[in-house]
Design goal:
CATH architecture of the largest domain: 2-Layer Sandwich
Order of helices and strands: HEHEEEEHEHEHEEEEHEHH
CATH superfamily of the largest domain: ZipA, C-terminal FtsZ-binding domain
Strand content: 15-25%
CATH class of the largest domain: Alpha Beta
Largest sheet: 6 strands, antiparallel
Length: 335
């Protein structure tokens, strides 16, 4: 093969790679735009895992801007976290009334909504202002970061405080890297219990089974099991419309039920998944249904065990990044 032919092949390979990368970027941008516009829910996938742990039994990705109920408020005030926030420190020459500082901070908080946090040291002379680098809509933009820093600098000047802040370009790059990680780790495990053809489940039996396991019907129409810290462990919902409601349960006749677990938001990953799987099998037996994945394939103990094993890899990945499943950082990033 001549040098010319080799050169042409190399150029062709680069062009193909460039097209693939461009298409991937455009697809991701389009997906985010659609999610912001329509608040789409998770795709009908049993589970999406990082590429390193992919398995034929697991497939389909979960959009990051899925519609959800509001997360429970933390027991104590959230603190800016350098691993997920752009944190600016304000050092005051002497303590100032907290209410005065927070009154001035209110406009910044409103502008950046849930992404902005402010916390004080016990002595009140050191304050930390943080802007969350990533949420389900994507990474913070450079313009927002500049605006946030400028606003905090204005606040510091009014207080006579000195500031210490990270370099913004590095923060923007860190936000993009964190967003890529979150896109891979934003996983929802979904299984279904379906009624025999032409049959349906009695709503009263569904409610009794759910409440017997500690699940409670919430305003969004799902039964939710929460732990002692009010964190959602897993949910039970009508797979098809309408959503469950207290008034409708007596007449309800769902043909399929969906159990779901958000890996990043549920603590004790494997234990929680195994508890959800046990409950799914209990529903299967009590209601006379079948436990299946999104493609209608039966889920036996072997398949469930394989999923549980892969979830261990996802949990380890999240913990290595400092966002253990169910932690305050994870609830903020995946909220």
């Amino acid at each position: 093969m001549s040098d010319l032919q080799i050169g042409l092949l190399a150029i062709g390979a680069l062009v193909v790679a460039g097209v693939l990368v461009y298409n991937r970027v455009q697809e991701r941008n389009a997906r985010r735009a659609a999610e912001r516009a329509f608040g789409s829910s998770h795709a009908d996938a049993l589970m999406q895992a990082p590429a390193a742990t992919a398995d034929p039994a697991i497939g389909g990705s979960a959009p990051r801007a899925a519609a959800r109920s509001e997360p429970p408020k933390p027991a104590q005030e959230a603190q800016p976290d350098p691993s997920i926030d752009y944190v600016i420190e304000l050092s005051l020459p002497r303590p100032a009334p907290a209410h005065e500082i927070r009154d001035q901070w209110a406009a910044i908080e409103r502008r950046h909504a849930r992404r902005a946090l402010l916390a004080a040291s016990p002595e009140g002379t050191l304050w930390r202002a943080g802007l969350q680098l990533v949420n389900r809509e994507g990474p913070v933009g450079e313009a927002d970061l500049i605006e946030f820093r400028s606003s905090v600098e204005t606040l510091a000047a009014a207080l006579g405080a000195s500031i210490e802040a990270p370099e913004m370009r590095a923060a923007v790059e860190a936000a993009r890297a964190l967003d890529d990680f979150c896109a891979e780790a934003d996983i929802q495990v979904v299984v279904h219990v379906v009624a025999p053809a032409g049959a349906a489940f009695a709503g009263t039996k569904v409610r009794a089974a759910a409440e017997a396991q500690g699940l409670a019907l919430e305003p969004d129409g799902r039964f939710v099991l929460r732990d002692e810290e009010n964190r959602a462990l897993y949910t039970l919902a009508n797979r098809d419309a309408p959503a469950f409601s207290a008034a409708w349960m007596r007449e309800a006749s769902p043909q399929a039920l969906t159990l779901a677990l958000e890996v990043a938001r549920a603590p004790h990953t494997r234990r929680t998944f195994e508890a959800m799987a046990r409950f799914a099998h209990q529903l299967e037996a009590a209601l006379g249904g079948r436990l299946v994945d999104d493609n209608g394939n039966a889920l036996d103990e072997r398949a469930v065990a394989a999923i549980a094993q892969q979830l261990e890899g996802v949990r380890a990945s999240l913990e290595a990044r400092g966002v253990a499943p169910g932690s305050a950082a994870a609830l903020r990033l995946f909220g």
